[in-house]
Amino acid sequence: MTQPSSTASACATRWEMWLSKVLSVICFTAVCAALDPEDVTASFIREVDTTIPMVTTTPYEPPVPTVERLSFWLDVFPSEKVELGCNVDGSSDWTFTWYRNAEKLQDIDPNVSASGSKLTITATTTTYSESYSCKGHHKTRPDVTTETSAPVQLTVYPNPPKPTLTRSSKFNTMFPGESVTFTCKVDASSGWSYLWYHNNTEIQTSDPNFRVDINHSKSGQYHCKAKRGNSPFFTEVSEATTLQVSEPPVPTVERLSSWLDVFPSEKVELGCNVDGSSDWTFTWYRNAEKLQDIDPNVSASGSKLTVTATTTTYSGSYSCKGHHKTRPDVTTETSAPVQLTVYPNPPKPTLTRSSTFNMMFPGESVTFTCKVDASSGWSYLWYHNNTEIQTSDPNFRVDINHSKSGQYHCKAKRGNSPFFTEVSEATTLQVSDPPKPFLKLLSPWMDVFENETVEFSCGVESDDWMITWYRNEKEVQSEEDPNVETMDSSLNITSVTQACQGRYSCKAELYLRKVISEFSNTADLRVYGNTPKPTASKGPTLNPMYVGETVTFTCKVIVSSGWEYQWYGNGVQTTTGETISIPLSLSNQGKYWCLAYRGDTTQTEFSDKIQQDVLDIPVPSLKLITPWLDVFPTESVKLSCEMNDNSDWIYKWSKDGNEVQADTFASFDSKGATLSISSASAAHTGHYTCKGQLGQRSVSSRFSSTCNLTVYDEKPTVLLQQDPEYNVMFPGESVSFSCHINVSTGWEYLFYQDRKPLNASGNKYPISSVDITHLGSYKCEAKRGSGQNYFTIVSEAIGLEVEENKPKPSMTQQPDVDKVYTGESVSFECTVEASSGWVYHWLKDGTPLPINNRTFSITDANLSNSGNYSCMATRDKTYNTQHSERRSLRVSEIPVPSLKRITPWLDVFPTEGVKLSCGIDGSPDWTYTWFRNGQLVKKDEVLSFGSDAATLSISSASASQRGQYSCSAQLKSRSVSSNSSSETTLEVYDTKPRVTLMQNPKHNVMHTGDAVTFSCHVNVSSGWEYLWHKDNRPLSEYNHTISSVVTTNTSYQCQVKRGTNTAFLSDRSQAVGLEVKERPKANIILLTGWSEVFSTDSLVLQCEMPKSQDLWNYTWFKEGRQINHLISEKHTVTPQNNTEQSLYTCQGIRSGRPSYSKFSESFTTKNLLLKRRVLLSISGLIFFGIIAVLLGCIVLRVFRKPDDGDDKPEETELFLTMAQLKERDDAPCPMVQYITDAELNYAPKEGEENGTICSETPLPITSHEDQAVTIESSGTTENNGGLVSFKQ
């Protein structure tokens, strides 16, 4: 690449000239554009300089001393000491005077001494119970004395206290392992420590609570006392309490089951008992190990343990231990164990028999014995030929007959859910008939009935003989007749039948030998086919009979003999005997029958049943035939006496215990069942009863209930009443007249209106809807009786007045206002002038209220009470008056006044004015009261109030006006007061505010284009207006902005003011000077020459900082946008990244100050690729055109004859030679002109004057010097340490 030509240098010179011409315009424009008013918080920012001390000159009142308690308590007992201290803010510059009950203490009291700030009192008597205070006197300023301190009250008790000793457990006896806590308490004063004693020996503890872990050594008496103070004061000794200690009882295990040796699946129940008490829970152990709850075969419920012995593992030694339910630390010792044995397998019983003969004869017996060797409690089950026999004894006796032969076996069981053993081995029983000689009837009779037993004996001299029996000379075969039994020498017919009838005899056969004896003597046996039916009878034959009578029953059988009789009553076996007598009671009522029997097997049928009914002797019922029992002279009375049954009763009457006899006025019917009194008189007054007598039997009833007959001395009077008792009635109302008589009953009532009879039913005459026709005078009377009526005296008259118009109530309200406030009381009163008896009803917004009084009061009004109120009245729930006029009531919350500041600020300086307002919605109905720090504010020289005290004005503020201000409102017309408003704090400073001027950034030297901010800070308050001074000259505007500094050095100051009428001005701030230097500017040069365009597609630009020795980095911009990846001093432009004409600028950045330069001038490029192709095409055309022209010239020279030379005109040269071009100043350079569009970028004349040479001219980029001015903005951003964002 060649060095720039002189033309390029000339162009650069011209650029510098133009740049210098617009430098001032660029600087000014950049500075102005950089300052965005929205990005600047303020031209000058106010900040409070807290480092400036404030001087306070407020005068103070002398401090108020406080009395401090140096002792631990202020309520003491005789001889105790109390120390008090007087303190004035911890200062030692004061002496003190002490007071008791506002009177100065005297030095002559030996029990009171003062030393410095301390007062010591020895409280010997209760006279020292007083109020103590102190006053301070400054040691070096004798005129300074404080106010008297707040008093401290000292209390002296007359006697030492006696502590109260209590214990946590109230049990009389405690057990080892428990604990009890004793509490010693002194009710008077505090600060006590306690001394404890056990059996008069001191215990080393001082706590008010003393815990004792119980053992036998802790039994005895306990007491306590208390002390306090260094020279201790002791209380009296408490009352003693006794602690008794004994061992817990030992439980016993009881067997609840019948046995303790069991087999698999059997259950065993054990019980644990502690002296029969239910205050214990229990833990069970097997072989001294605690039983687990997870075992399903072991369950414990209360004191009972149930064990299901499924395996032998449940064998063992069982014991229990008790735990007290309410005393968790009490546990008994383990009980004595009980041994449980579980056998591994069910037992098998052993079966034995009493006889070992293989053959048995009828009449013999054998006893089988079933035995289980293990355990006990067995009941046995017997089986004959596998059929169960109904017995449970271990021994089973069999009376031999042929049916009893066969196989026998047994097994055993026990328990409610029975456990069964295995089955025993079987044994066989064989039976045969032996012969019997010497026949003898052993039964009582020879005439028998079927199923009876007959027994014969056949005597044999030796036991070796066997007997053979015969009936009707035929051998009796016991095998054929199961009812015939033979045993040794006897014949037993167990159940006689018709076949058994005949002549009996026997033969004997030698034992173990077949020798038969002769026939024995005979016996004739007669057998009846059916058993007879007994006959039952009774006497007397009456039915029913009454309680107390006696009945006799007889039972008789006429066939055979030897009968015994059994009686039954209502299906229940009663007694035996042929004849029985029964004194009757109600329980004897029912059916009776009998049967006859003899022996063990024969009994007759039941006799016919005889019904015997038994009744209570009835009590007669005395009834009124006349409906009433209180009568008047000459009235008739009739009474009846009757029984509930239909027997023939005869009745007798009694009055006051004397029998009533028939006379002129009293009479009876045929049986005395009716008593009639034709004309009653006073002699008939009394208590009447009756009783019944049964004709031919000694049966008498009790007397009936009493009937009291009363006979009055004179005629009765009646009373007429009106309901309701209103003197005036209105149409549509209802009224009822009732007629009353105060004695007797059965009256019929008669009513009259103005002496005309009225149609009435009962004792009332109702009028359901009154009208004018009911006006008049009303009376009544009463009558009774059916034959001859009996009339009373006529009642007094009652007049009825009827008013035609419906009344309308009037309603009043107190207070008589439309609007009230919450908490106020409001009362309404409703009045109906006409008549009486009104019930008043109140309505709110048309809805009834649950109030029925004449007055309706709202004692504590709230918002829900707002509405329209009216009232009406009713009588008897049927008649309504008209509604009253409505009264509207509006209830509002008592408004809270709003305290507002009229002065915009509440922290002011001396002599400033302050104005506050207090108001409630702009209403003129209120007056206001002002408060400062809770104290009432009063008017003075500088403080005044507006109308109704709605405003508070302070004309000249001072320190005494500091504080919390609030206000409250009072209603002018009523005693309604609002709550206080929210508080507003007024602060009054002691001195003027200090103003501080600050510069940002704090650089000593600024550069052109930099932004600088001056902040004016006031250390207190608000509402300030800021005044600026430049070089001691005030600026016209309140806000002064320096958006871009220039090189002029200046000095700045500020001050503040506020207020409209009388402005308050602060002092000026300190002066701040500003030094400004020029900011350097970047420059772009083109490193690529125009002649290199044939060999390259790109242009190389370079950014530099002229006249700068510092190290700079560079940022490139294309069309005003940063080329992000480029920060070098060179930038290459190619057709790919520059397809159109573009505007390029650059800027220098670095880490020092200034951190960035001004932007360079702008440079413009064109489409290099297109222009390069066009340039090559034109160059080719020119090249070949020159060749063609040269060839043409040669051809012309060859083939054309030359003219005569002298007269030819001289040919004009179309093209200049290179030498000529160099000599010419105005020779254009067409290549350069085409590439750079020189006509568009007008070349400065300075360049022409510098003699530009076409061959050395660099490819220029037009600079639009007047197109853009760079302006710094306060919103400049940083990228990689440099400021890279600018406005264009």
TrEMBL record:
A GO-annotated cellular component: external side of plasma membrane
TM regions (residue ranges): 1174-1199
Matches recorded under Pfam families: Ig_2, Ig_3
Signal peptide bounds: 1-34
Keyword Transmembrane found: yes
Keyword Disulfide bond included in the entry's annotation: yes
Domain Ig-like intervals: 65-145, 163-246, 251-331, 349-432, 437-517, 534-607, 620-700, 809-892, 897-977, 993-1066, 1080-1164
Gene Ontology molecular function: transmembrane signaling receptor activity
Keyword line: Disulfide bond, Membrane, Signal, Transmembrane, Transmembrane helix
InterPro entries attached to this UniProt entry: Ig-like_dom, Ig-like_dom_sf, Ig-like_fold, Ig_Fc_receptor, Ig_sub, Ig_sub2
GO terms (BP aspect): cell surface receptor signaling pathway; immune response
Name of the protein this chain belongs to: Ig-like domain-containing protein
Organism: Champsocephalus gunnari
